[in-house]
Inverse folding.
């Protein structure tokens, strides 16, 4: 196998899984770990991935937005753990905001554990999921449909958000970085997230570790605008430390 073919396979694995490890790649591609590290170095220089301890993660450009179905296929187990832990922070009777995205969707899957919960969301797939639970009250914001993420964005969403104050909002992001704060690749969805911040007492970020250290196009808020970040235990320790020093507590699951 030529190096170009091997590197193409590495990128295909990354696109499907979101993360890869040197040892697993070496075994799968029948080459040495030294060879895999050299391949990863080349791909990182090309801006196609970001090296991590023992492997690599996707490094999407700030202007690139992957469709929902591709995001859904990456970091599946990590997102399930994040969603479960986040759902434990909900109390019976709460009014909560659920943002769009695959990690927030994992929060939605566990809301049935609670009684008399009201959910405000701009995610049509979240609303469709929760319609199966009559004990959960669902309010969908108005707005323009973005098929890429099954989301509703401005205009008109403010008509709903200005008239409520939620107990807690679960918000996703494409980038969480100590200096630049919380960012998102899509500007209209970033505006929705800003509205969610204003309309909630407590704001919880839910994001897998590939989003940490990344800066996307649109500013959502400062680290101190949020009360907690829940991410997976593969997050880079130095990035976690810097985020915590910036005023945002981090919980690893």
């Amino acid at each position: 196998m030529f190096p170009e073919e091997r590197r193409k396979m590495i990128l295909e694995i990354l696109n499907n899984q979101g993360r890869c490890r040197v040892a697993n790649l070496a075994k799968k591609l029948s080459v040495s770990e030294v060879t895999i590290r050299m391949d990863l170095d080349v791909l990182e220089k090309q801006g196609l991935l970001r090296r991590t301890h023992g492997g690599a993660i996707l490094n999407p450009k700030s202007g690139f937005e992957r469709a929902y179905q591709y995001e859904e296929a990456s970091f599946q187990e990590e997102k399930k753990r994040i969603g479960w832990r986040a759902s434990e922070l909900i109390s019976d009777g709460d009014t909560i905001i659920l943002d769009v995205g695959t990690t927030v969707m994992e929060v939605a899957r566990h809301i049935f554990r609670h009684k008399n919960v009201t959910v405000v969301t701009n995610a049509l797939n979240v609303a469709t999921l929760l319609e199966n639970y009559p004990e959960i009250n669902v309010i969908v914001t108005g707005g323009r449909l973005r098929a890429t993420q099954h989301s509703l964005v401005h205009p008109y969403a403010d008509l709903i958000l200005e008239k409520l104050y939620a107990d807690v909002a679960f918000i996703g992001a494409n980038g969480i970085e100590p200096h630049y704060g919380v960012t998102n690749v899509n500007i209209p969805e970033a505006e929705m997230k800003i509205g969610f911040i204003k309309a909630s007492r407590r704001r919880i970020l839910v994001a897998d570790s590939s989003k940490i250290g990344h800066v996307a196009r649109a500013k959502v808020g400062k680290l101190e605008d949020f009360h907690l970040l829940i991410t997976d235990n593969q997050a880079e320790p130095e990035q976690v430390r810097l985020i915590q020093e910036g005023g945002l507590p981090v919980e690893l699951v």
Summary: The first strand starts at residue 19 and ends at 21. The first helix runs from residue 3 to 17. Residues 3-58 form a domain with the Arc Repressor Mutant, subunit A fold (CATH 1.10.10.10).
